[in-house]
Amino acid sequence: xxxxxxxxxxxxxxxxxxxxxxxxxxxxxSGYSVNLESARTPFPPAAVSAAARTxxxxxxxxxxxxxxxxxxxxxxxxxxxxxxxxxxxxxPWGRITAAERGRVLARIGALVLARADxxxxxxxxxxxxxxxxxxxxxxxxxxxxxxxGHRLPSDAQGQPALAELKSVKNVALVFVTATVPAGxxxxxxxxxx
Length: 193
Fold this sequence. Notes:
By secondary structure, the chain is of the alpha+beta class. The protein is built from five helices and five strands; from the N terminus they run E-E-E-H-E-E-H-H-H-H. The protein has helices at about 45-55, 80-95, 100-115, 115-125, 130-150; strands spanning about 10-15, 20, 30-40, 60-65, 70-80. It has a five-stranded antiparallel sheet. Helix 4 crosses helix 5 (about 130-150). The two termini are about 25 Å apart. The model is unreliable at about 1-15 and about 15-30 (pLDDT under 50).
């Protein structure tokens, strides 16, 4: 995804939404929206405009309390059908193959690794983190991108070798094992998971 709002996209039905809309974008009683980003602080109008421009759809911000704390969600939509929302979910990132996405993630990891000292200095200056910890975080990010960009190594029984993932901290990693046909697969195929 080229929007700069991350890869955390989620399809939701606006009939079941909670909270209120903050930029007075009218929503029909039903329809589908795509959640681009969630944050504890409101999104500036420039971010909403950028989301609309890069996603090619109407963008808005909604608010919902989570454990008594207001959270803001940057969304695009509404879309009349689920298929239209899923097409918006695909975006440029969804239209490239898994192998290409893996190469992008691995390349990000390589770039982070190459600039680990610079990133650590920025992190230490920005949030006051000790330089040693900031560098360790940058190296961990580079490794996680590499892990996400490549297949995990397998053990002698053909099972994924998960020992390396035990050191991963503060990262949610969803691990799915699937049998991919020898001829490959494409978006929309059903796989044996």
